């Protein structure tokens, strides 16, 4: 039993190493300024397949919702890469749906384990993350030519993201084995924050930073469930 567990963990580690190598190739090819769209698809589809594999092996509440959310992350990735028409708005919408599914999955997992959803970790994280959200939104508004619906859409997306991260902290508080999930959520905020900042100020190698933090975020959220239940 222990050997089987170690073998599965070994396979998961190999997949993540492959993703990191592909990411480095993409960063090098784009000189840290722009990720190759085919590299983007390769990394994204690898995460999607891994999420499916874990779900089929675990059949847990957590792994089910993570897999469903990853479908929308994949759609968001290939949209932003230009393979599906819709651009920033449609791609962002796919990620917003993914965060909502993450939220549902975290809540369902906490309740399945008879935990407390809105615990101390949730409220502390929520206050911290929402302060960051409001600050970044105010800064971004100064550099946005569009107004109205787009501004509201960006703020709504931020609410989905920060709520997801807050509930990830609550999940970790209920069960320390979900630490990877909470850390992954933090890196998701970092990644999206750099996306916002790159429109306001010039950040050297912002594309490399965005994708590196994004890959770490998905690693924490997806692989966290493999060892948690």
Automatic annotation (TrEMBL):
InterPro entries: TMEM86B-like
Keyword field: Membrane, Transmembrane, Transmembrane helix
One Pfam family from the record: YhhN
Topological type in the membrane: Multi-pass membrane protein
Transmembrane annotation, as ranges: 12-32, 38-56, 65-84, 90-109, 121-139, 151-171, 178-196, 208-225
Major location category of this protein: membrane
The keyword S-adenosyl-L-methionine is annotated on this UniProt entry: no
Compartments reported by the entry: Membrane
Record-linked PANTHER family: GH04784P
Family stated for the protein in its record: Belongs to the TMEM86 family.
Protein name: Lysoplasmalogenase family protein
């Amino acid at each position: 039993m222990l050997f089987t567990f170690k073998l599965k963990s070994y396979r998961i580690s190999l997949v993540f190493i492959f993703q990191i190598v592909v990411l480095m190739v993409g960063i090098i090819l784009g000189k840290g300024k722009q990720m190759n769209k085919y590299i983007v698809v390769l990394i994204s589809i690898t995460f999607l397949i891994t999420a499916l594999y874990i779900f089929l092996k675990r059949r847990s509440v957590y792994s089910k919702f993570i897999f469903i959310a990853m479908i929308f992350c994949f759609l968001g990735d290939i949209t932003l890469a230009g393979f599906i028409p819709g651009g920033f708005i449609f791609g962002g919408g796919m990620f917003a749906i993914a965060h909502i599914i993450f939220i549902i999955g975290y809540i369902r997992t906490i309740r399945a384990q008879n935990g407390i959803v809105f615990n101390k970790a949730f409220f502390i994280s929520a206050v911290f993350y929402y302060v960051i959200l409001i600050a970044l939104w105010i800064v971004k508004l100064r550099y946005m030519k569009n107004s109205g619906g787009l501004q509201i859409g960006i703020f709504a997306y931020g609410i989905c993201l920060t709520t997801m991260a807050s509930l990830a902290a609550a999940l970790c508080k209920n069960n320390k084995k979900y630490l990877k999930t909470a850390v992954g959520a933090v890196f998701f905020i970092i990644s999206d924050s750099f996306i916002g900042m790159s429109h306001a100020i010039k950040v050297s190698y912002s594309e490399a930073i965005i994708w590196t933090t994004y890959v770490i975020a998905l690693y924490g959220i997806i692989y966290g469930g493999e060892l948690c239940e």
